[in-house]
């Protein structure tokens, strides 16, 4: 009976192990699925819609093959189409039946070409078309969340939601690759393969054990089970008898029994096979009995109804700021204001251009501080699908114990982001509550009436406070405690006026004035219905002679002399300093005051008074 049970265990073990292995091999099916994207017409760009990328669940792998350099980038579908608005491209979309279809998209003709476009058309004959094509290369656009470049064959792993699309091209001029496909890893879980193989291995071991017991039982019960006939009495052999046949007593050797060592040799192969089969089973070969982890609750942020998508992600902002800093560093080294203008704008550009003039004439003139890049602590993008767009960022350098706040702007979908405002944060600055980067913030209109003070009035009001102090009508609207900039301006003016009066009070006069700068304010909303507002203020110092025979000399001021282009003047000089200021302006009805968050100040210009 033991042999019967052993055979039954062997058969059942073979069936279970075979079924488990079959689930992992012949019955499992392909581990990936791909779809080819047919491109019927040549175009410089191929846009793969997010619906195509999410035709199957899971991560996607883009494969594009062609001659030469192949470029691919992904970003928001709306941004991609906006970037392609004025060029021809092929768009791959998903039909209602689930098939991938591609069609050519041509730009809508402009109603009335501008004068610049007319000049460009006329200049195409002398090679300006190539310059335009190079300027519109897709490589390095700030709109892309990420981009890839490979030679001849591009393979890019992706994991994009439906609102994202992929752009495939070469250099933006030649035709995009036509051999393009998207593949997905297909989950083929076989939760019963592992248990079947392991249970089969256990049954095999049980069968071996039963087989050994059966053999042992048979050998113990071997021999006659009834009495035999009486045997004749044997006589001793007489060894002295010559020539007599000698009797020989022989016995067949006994069969060696299967001892513990033999049992181990029989059972070991079965256990080894079981162990190998067990080790070959991956995690998806077993039932997932553990409960799904419960996400920890986080602070909820209510997105206003109808709010649009944020302009950038944090990773995108890091890459943009790094590009701006690199371009600024190159311009600083070459003293090239034209190069700086490709990534800087507004007061930031004006101050650096002035520094380049001074450094070109004065070898000892120090360069402005490099633009900080990391670690990026705060990113507050404008939630807006159109243009221009703005992004506020705070970079906190733990090593230097300094922090900087900046504002970036992008004028249109083809323009790079430019740094327009840059200031150092106050040491004890308490930032207001801001929306997370994945939500973004609304840009506050310059004439907004929902703040304690409209952004377009802020620069003039603060300038009046710097000029008049407590006598200003706006004095009580600004928080004086912690405003280190106001204190430093007051102290500097008092010291300079005292030094001037010591030597030139009888022959000249020194006056100070502060006015709103020429650059428009930028404001992004906070969570408490307030706003962070960046403004530009100019401080103007005026030195005039009060005696008709006196002149103002600049022997000890090479900076003003270089900018003004004169060593002395009978009419006097004006020196202008540019201040970049960031304020927190509370919402209307708040009991808080307007707080200064950060500031920077650099010399901007000097002129002879006419």
TrEMBL record:
A Pfam family it matches: DUF8094
Keyword Transmembrane: yes
Start and end residues of each DUF8094 domain: 309-607
Keywords, ordered alphabetically: Membrane, Transmembrane, Transmembrane helix
Residue ranges, annotated region (Disordered): 94-133
TM ranges: 192-213, 264-286
Segments of skewed composition (Acidic residues): 113-127
Compositionally biased residues, Low complexity: 103-112
Highest taxon listed in the record's lineage: Bacteria
Annotated protein name in UniProt: DUF8094 domain-containing protein
